[in-house]
Amino acid sequence: MRCVPSCFQLDLSPSSSSSSFLPFLPLLNSHFYPARPSPNFTASALNSRTCFLFFAVSASSPSSSSSPSSHSSTPTKDIWRRSPLHKTTLSSSPYRHQSKQEPAYLDHSIDMDELLASIRQTQNEQQLYCLMSPYKGRQLSIRFMVSLLSREADWQRSLALLDWIHEEAMYSPSVFAYNVVLRNVLRAKQWVVAHGLFDEMRQRALAPDRYTYSTLITYFGKDRLFDSALSWLQKMEEDRVSGDLVLYSNLIELSRKLCDYSKAISIFSRLKSSGITPDLVAYYNTMIKIYGKSLEHEKATNLVQEMQSRGIEPNAITYSTIISIWGKAGKLDRAAILFQKLRTSGVEIDQVLYQTMIVAYERAGLVAHSKRLLHELKRPDNIPRDTAILILSRAGRIEEATWVFRQAFDAGEVKDISIFGCMIDLYSRNRKPANVIEVFEKMREAGYFPDSNVIALVLNAYGKLQEFEKADAVYREMQEEGCVFPDEVHFQMLGLYGAKKDLSKVNSLFERLELDPNINRRELYLVVASIYERANRLNEASRIMNRIGEERTLKTF
């Protein structure tokens, strides 16, 4: 049996009732380690046992199951066993062979939900084995047992159940059962145990399959144990288990997020040498970006050519990425030629492409070329006006964006609420409150309902224009229409009332907000106290600040 969690009590006495049906096996090296309690089991289950056997295949294996082990030697897992694992061979298997005639199983007569509920109430190994004893004669199919394992999320119970399957009921080892338990162990980040399960599969003459390796690589990778993930990839390749595009793509994306571009390129090379041919534009785009980050613009270019040679049409993201890479590499002539070819070839030029080219020109100091593109966007012939507005506003081109926006709005061509939001954000960033209000009024005229971020910017604009009554009207109107404000909008309105020196409205809104269970009361008190302090109403400010102390006292009790 495997490394039983400390919550499982092992009966190691010679009179154990279970010893009669266990095969006699030669002892391996054993070590004693203190038992570690599991949060899923009660302390009473630990009273009769303070240590457990760790049968180690390698004496150098680490004892902690909560951290990854070195990959220079294969680590083992803690094994909850009365006797150490026998290395299974095809000629000397300790398992009873199934009869040629398929037995009648009780699968359909057993309520799996009830059985699972009972398993989850067990506090130690003996209780679990006792619960499962009526099925010791393999009255349940291995398919049923694998389903049971897959629904038991607790990694320690699933390990114990796997041991019962093999050591008590004597089912033939199943790679499916191991894969399910391996998943549970990895979810719990029990890295050493995962290594041991893998070793045990091999010892039981089970060949790890694609799912086994994919699970190991994915979970080690997700926890940023990248070297470990790559070592599993190497084992997979050594075992000649074929990976798939999804597996390699996940590793490449992970390395990109970690900014480890050399590893991403290495994995990409391994993918291609394995015979897997990527057929996704998104996959190529990721690799082109990675080559750009690693300043290998020629390889990025070759990848675009490879796409085209395989009949995969690059999309706007591909082109904008390669244009950006060429611009940064000082190959602006190539970027400009490609951009011009795209414009004349009928390929749809989106906002990303235009913006990329504008930035490339500006970075190279070619201001005239940049202005020419911006001027073209004022009278866009080959792209929609809303796209031109997005390009200009995100490029910070206030004058050009304003001109196109007004023309498009008058022509009824502004159909997307994000255009209004983009323009309001542009004007707010550039401190043009009157323009913020202009776009907001057009937005309401068109029948669009603003979100809380837009409302905050609009209230701020009204405040800068000293138009407090209009700000109050918008605040009340939006509330009546059902808009749910974040705390910051309420606090902003309080600030506007304070700037107007309308303390009666400050007090009225404060009293209403104080009753709101969702409001951040501490921040509310600080905002209101500062308003009273600026108005030289120090007694009121002190009274409000005292409430913070009262709130803290109440929480203590």
Q: Structural class, judged by helices and strands?
A: mainly alpha
Mean pLDDT comes to 76
| Quaternary status | single chain
| Strand content range | under 5%
Strand order in space, largest sheet: 1-2
Low confidence ranges: 1-100
Share of helical residues: 55-70%
Summed up, the helix count is 26
Radius of gyration: 34 Å
Tally of strands: 2
Structural notes for this entry:
By secondary structure, this protein is an all-alpha fold. Among the domains are: 19-85 and 104-204, no CATH class; 486-557. It has helices spanning 112-119, 125-132, 142-151, 155-168, 175-187, 191-203, 210-222, 226-238, 245-257, 261-273, 281-293, 297-309, 316-328, 332-345, 351-363, 367-378, 385-394, 398-410, 417-429, 433-445, 452-464, 468-480, 487-499, 503-514, 521-534, 538-556, and strands at residues 30-34, 51-55. It has a two-stranded antiparallel sheet. Helix 21 packs antiparallel against helix 22 (468-480). It is flat, with a radius of gyration of 34 Å. It starts with 29 loop residues before the first strand and ends with a helix.
